[in-house]
Please model this.
Amino acid sequence: MCINQKTGPSQPSVLSPQSSERGVSLIELIMFIVIISFAVAGILLVMNLTTAHSADSLVRKQALAIAESLLEEVELMPFTYCDPDDANAANATAATAAQCPAASGVGGVEAMGPETLGGTETRYAAPNFDNVNDYHGFSMSGVGGIKDITNTPISAALDGYSASVSATPQALGGIAGTDVNGAPQSLLVTVTVTGPGNTTVVLDGYRIRYAPNNLP
Model:
């Protein structure tokens, strides 16, 4: 009696050495470590850049706040032909000694920078800055350098900041920078604030003369 080979009892298969499970080779492990190292290094680089830029952003915002405050302070000042202490400051129509006669040691023609007649003008004490021109060349720096108008340091956190102001006659549209007497008619006011890490913010603003109707 013959037994059909196809219908006979199945025989257990024998696994060849090539079909058995394989482990991770040393080369594959090294490659894996190298790839993961590059990936981690990239992530750390992004995190470092993000952290650094976050700090820069904070410094820049603080510098911008200082610059905006100081620029607004300057632009709100009178812009007269005569020093505002002069009796004719509200009516003078030209920057001449005839229209701005100094009397009792005060007044006179308004000049660029602080006046010295009757004492040198300052931002903090009498005689105070009282004209846009007076802020030309003004600066604050050093420990406690960023101060309010009462000469009080705003915060110790601002010790690393400095600020400076310049006012330069510059034409704007159809308005000349200066008049026939050389007095400024249109001023470009520039405030520069520098913070930690050499972060610098520069703000510009124009102030146009509306004399003689320009006293507060």
Q: What stands out?
A: The two ends are 129 Å apart (CA to CA). The beta strands are 139-140, 162-169, 186-195, 199-208. The mean pLDDT is 85.
